[in-house]
Design a protein that fits this description.
heterodimer; A: about 280 residues; alpha/beta; Rossmann fold; 2 domains; six-stranded mixed beta sheet; four-stranded antiparallel beta sheet; 9 helices; about 40% helix; globular; disordered C terminus; B: about 280 residues; mainly alpha; MetI-like fold; disordered N terminus; nucleotide-binding (chain A)
Chain lengths: ~280, ~280
C-alpha cells in the first residue's frame, strides 16, 4: 500500500533475477523491493547493463524471479501478466501484417469480430497520427511511425498497466521529444499505471511521478527512490528549463553518476575478467 | 495524440513496387546484346550443321529442332506428355512441401526430436537422390507415383530446412510481443511462427519448383510411359538427336513460364517484405 491509501498496482518483494549464461550463473538484479501505486507513472533508471529490462520482464511475467515475489494488484504473478501491455525497445511489430492488422492484433487474439476490431483500430491509428497508413507494412514506415503503431497496438487492448522498455531509445532527439509529449497526453487521465525503463534521466524526470534508481550491475540493487513533484499537466518542451526540474535532476544525477562511474570501472576491469570465460 | 505527422521525418513510399532490376539505364543495350548472342549461336549452329562442320547426326540443327517442336504442338501430341510431367511436379511440390513443413516445424519446436533425428536427416540429405529412382520404380511402378515420390525426396529437404530455420530464427521480440498481446500457443503458431517459416519457404519456392520438375523429368527418363522425360529418353533410344533437343527446348520453355508465374506468386506473398534481400537460397 502506498502512503495515501493509494492502491498498489505492482509490487516487487525481494526479487532476485538470475540466469545462466555459458554455464555460469549471472545475477542481474538482487533483492529488489519496488512499489508502484495504481495510476502512477514510475521510471526505472540506471547505468547500462544494470538489469532494468530484467525487472520489467519480471513484472511482465516473461521471466521468473530466482527469489522473491512479484505481486500484481496484490496477487502473486503466475505466468504472463495479463493486465499489462508491453512496449519493447526493439520492434515487436509483425512484419507480415499491415499497420491496421498490427494494431488490431491484440483484439484479433481475443476473438473480437473483424469489423469491430477494424473500426477500433482505425480509431487508434488516427489517434496516434497515422491515418492514411492503415495498409502500409512496417518496413515502409519510419522509426517514429513504427513506434506510433506500437503505441496503438499496446493501448488498444486497454491494459491496466503499461510496461515500457526504453520505447523511444532508438529515435532521433526531436522525434523522441514529440513522442514523449504524445505519450504523456495519452496517459493523462487514463488512470493507467506505467512502469517506464530508460537510461535517460532527462526523460525519466520529465515524464514520471517517481524515479527509481538502480545501482550498477551485476546484482544491481535499488539505490533510491525520488519523488518528482512537478505539476501536471506538463509541457515537455518547456519543462526541462524550469528550476524545479533542474533541482530534481541534479539530486538524482549525483547518485546516478556514481553508479555510472562504477559501471565504467567494472567494464574496464571486466575486459580482463571476461577473457577467461 | 495532439501533434501528428510532425514527428515523421521521412515520408515513406507506401506502395513502392519491387524494382529488382538494377541499372535500368542499361536495359536496351542488354536486351539487344542478348538477342544478338542468341542469333549468333543459333545461326552458327545451323550453318555448321548444314556445311558438315559438325555432324548433324549428333548435333541436329536448329531448324529441324524447331520444326519438330512446332510439329508436336500442331499435332497436339506434346500436351499429354507436358500434362503428366507438370502433374507429377505439382504433386511432388505439394506433398514434399507439406511434409517438409510439418516435420520441419516439429523438429524446430521439439528439441528432443531434433536431436534424435539430426544424424538421420543429414544422412538422407547426403544421399544422391538419383539412386532412389530404381527403388521407387519397384515400389510405385511405372506410373506417375514413382516420379512423384522421387520429386518429393528433392522438395522435402528444401522445405524442411527452410521451415526449420524459419521457425528457429523467428524474432524473439516479435514472439514476446505477441505473447504479451495475449497470444496463446496455437495463436502463436498461426500468427507468428508459421508466417516466419513461410517467409523462408516462399523465398526458396523457385528452387523447390525447379527440383519438383527435375524430379519428374529424371524419374520419367529412367522409366515411364508418358511425360517429357519419357519423350526425351524415347528419342535417345532411336538415336533421334532432333527429338532429344526438341524435348529439351520445350522443357526449358515451360520451366521459364513456370518461373515467371512463381515470381508473381512470390512477389505477392512476400509483398510485406523490404524489396532488397528478397531471395534466400534453399537448403542445398
Amino acid at each position: 500500500m502506498g502512503d495515501d491509501g493509494v492502491a498498489t498496482a505492482i509490487e516487487l518483494r525481494g526479487v532476485t533475477m538470475a540466469y545462466r549464461a555459458k554455464g555460469a550463473d549471472y545475477t542481474a538484479v538482487s533483492d529488489v523491493d519496488l512499489t508502484v501505486g495504481t495510476g502512477r507513472f514510475v521510471s526505472v533508471v540506471g547505468p547500462t547493463g544494470c538489469g532494468k529490462s530484467t525487472v520489467l520482464n519480471a513484472v511482465a511475467g516473461l521471466l521468473t524471479p530466482a527469489a522473491g515475489q512479484v505481486l500484481v494488484d496484490g496477487k502473486p504473478l503466475r505466468g504472463l501478466n495479463r493486465k499489462a501491455g508491453y512496449m519493447f525497445q526493439q520492434d515487436g511489430l509483425l512484419p507480415w501484417k499491415t499497420v491496421l492488422d498490427n494494431v488490431a492484433f491484440g483484439l484479433q487474439l481475443r476473438g473480437v469480430s473483424k469489423s469491430e476490431r477494424a473500426e477500433l483500430a482505425r480509431d487508434w491509428i488516427a489517434r496516434v497520427g497515422l491515418a492514411g497508413f492503415e495498409d502500409a507494412y512496417p518496413h515502409q514506415l519510419s522509426g517514429g511511425m513504427r513506434k506510433r503503431t506500437a503505441v496503438a497496438q499496446s493501448w488498444i487492448g486497454d491494459p491496466e498497466m503499461l510496461l515500457m522498455d526504453e520505447p523511444f531509445g532508438a529515435l532521433d532527439v526531436q522525434t523522441r521529444q514529440v513522442m514523449e509529449n504524445e505519450l504523456l497526453t495519452l496517459w493523462t487521465g487514463s488512470e493507467k499505471t506505467v512502469l517506464f525503463v530508460t537510461h535517460d534521466l532527462d526523460e525519466a524526470v520529465s515524464l514520471s511521478d517517481e524515479v527509481v534508481l538502480l545501482s550498477a550491475g551485476p546484482a544491481s540493487r535499488i539505490v533510491g527512490t525520488y519523488a518528482v513533484d512537478l505539476p501536471r499537466p506538463r509541457n515537455l518542451l518547456d519543462i526541462r528549463t524550469s528550476p524545479e526540474f533542474t533541482e530534481i535532476y541534479r539530486a538524482i544525477w549525483s547518485d546516478l553518476r556514481d553508479e555510472v562511474m562504477k559501471t565504467y570501472e567494472r567494464t574496464s576491469e571486466g575486459d580482463a575478467v571476461g577473457a577467461d570465460r | 495524440m495532439s501533434a501528428p505527422a510532425k514527428a515523421t521525418p521521412s515520408v515513406p513510399t507506401a506502395d513502392a513496387p519491387a524494382k529488382r532490376r538494377r541499372g535500368r539505364g542499361h536495359r536496351p543495350a542488354v536486351l539487344i546484346t542478348q538477342i544478338a548472342l542468341a542469333v549468333v549461336v543459333v545461326l552458327g549452329w545451323e550453318l555448321c550443321s548444314r556445311n558438315g562442320i559438325v555432324d548433324e547426326f549428333f548435333f541436329s540443327k536448329p531448324s529441324d529442332i524447331l520444326s519438330r517442336a512446332v510439329d508436336w504442338f500442331v499435332t497436339g501430341s506434346i500436351w499429354e506428355h507436358l500434362r503428366v510431367t507438370l502433374v507429377e511436379a505439382a504433386l511432388a511440390l505439394v506433398i514434399g512441401g507439406v511434409l517438409g513443413l510439418v516435420i520441419g516445424f516439429l523438429l524446430a519446436r521439439v528439441e528432443f526430436i531434433a536431436a534424435v533425428f539430426d544424424p538421420y536427416i543429414k544422412m538422407l540429405n547426403a544421399l544422391p537422390r538419383v539412386v532412389l529412382a530404381p527403388i521407387f520404380l519397384l515400389w510405385f511402378g511405372l506410373g506417375i507415383w514413382s516420379k512423384v515420390a522421387f520429386g518429393v525426396t528433392l522438395v522435402f529437404f528444401i522445405v524442411f530446412f527452410n521451415t526449420y530455420q524459419g521457425v528457429r530464427e523467428v524474432d524473439r521480440v516479435v514472439v514476446d510481443n505477441a505473447r504479451m498481446l495475449g497470444a496463446k500457443q496455437g495463436q502463436l503458431v498461426r500468427h507468428v511462427l508459421l508466417p516466419s517459416a513461410l517467409t523462408w519457404i516462399f523465398s526458396s519456392l523457385h528452387i523447390s519448383v525447379g527440383f519438383a520438375i527435375v524430379g519428374a523429368v529424371v524419374g520419367e527418363y529412367l522409366g515411364a510411359s508418358k511425360g517429357v522425360g519419357y519423350l526425351i529418353s524415347q528419342a535417345e533410344g532411336t538415336f533421334d538427336t532432333t527429338g532429344v533437343f526438341a524435348g529439351m527446348v520445350v522443357l526449358s520453355a515451360v520451366v521459364l513460364v513456370v518461373d515467371v508465374a512463381v515470381n508473381r506468386v512470390e512477389r505477392y506473398l512476400l509483398r510485406w517484405k523490404p524489396t532488397q534481400a528478397n531471395h534466400i537460397a534453399g537448403g542445398q
